[in-house]
Design a protein that fits this description.
Elements lengths: L1 E4 L2 E6 L2 E4 H5 L6 H4 L15 H14 L5 H10 L2 E3 L5 E3 L10 E3 L5 E3 H7 L9 H4 L3 E5 L5 E5 L6 H10 L3 H4 L1 H8 L1 H18 L1
Parallel strand pairs: 3-9
Antiparallel strand pairs: 1-2, 2-3, 4-5, 6-7, 8-9
């Protein structure tokens, strides 16, 4: 189901609303170009859900060994999360501006300590959901549903260009997190809606 608004078409799949740009927009991380700048750019950390806070604290003994001294200091001073200017939960940021849960490899690439720990089979948390789903941002609706929108950040310019060049749409790039977090049925329905929408545009 879809509905047209002044700001584009909104696709409804169950209780989840998906903006047109999630289907029509292009995105593919170009890590060689950005070197993980999203982990260090911006005034605040990545958005967090309430149910992630305890998991961060519980898994800290596992992924903490991959964090930087600055990251550990930030956690000690501010805790496992902080609030942004709008009072929303976000990951803790170290004094240097980087996410407390990030680290740099020998080549200067910024990486996620939590994700490194996950891939080593040492913790259950992959990374904060907002990071895994980026460039999609999730908004909770008053009625209990969710809205998925395409967030366009200047630090990801190379990713937008690479996605367009390779023909990879936002929802296609995010197949794994969308399927894991919202279910295979949701993702299949999203793909069907995207195909139908593209056919109608021809």
């Amino acid at each position: 189901m879809s509905a047209e608004r002044d700001y584009g078409i909104i696709f409804q799949i169950g209780d989840i609303l998906v903006s047109e740009e999630v289907i029509t927009g292009f995105f593919c991380c170009d890590y060689s170009a950005c070197k993980g700048e999203c982990c260090i750019a911006g005034e605040y950390g990545a958005p967090l859900e309430e149910d992630e806070l305890q998991v961060l604290e519980d898994e800290y003994p596992n992924f903490g060994k991959y964090m930087t001294p600055a990251g550990h200091t930030a956690i000690a001073e501010k805790g496992f999360f902080e609030l942004d200017i709008e009072g929303e939960l976000v990951t803790t940021v170290a004094r240097g501006g980087e996410c407390a849960y990030s680290f740099q490899d020998s080549a200067g690439n910024c990486l996620c300590a939590i994700e490194k720990c996950f891939f080593k089979g040492e913790c259950a948390m992959r990374k904060p959901r907002s990071c895994w789903l980026y460039p999609i941002r999730v908004t909770k609706l008053t009625g209990g549903g969710l809205a998925l929108n395409f967030h366009q950040w200047h630090v990801c310019k190379a990713a937008f260009e690479k996605g367009r060049k390779e023909g990879i749409h936002v929802y296609e790039f995010l197949r794994e997190p969308l399927s894991k977090l919202f279910g295979d049925d949701f993702y299949e329905a999203l793909c069907a809606a995207a195909a139908k929408f593209r056919d109608s545009e021809i």
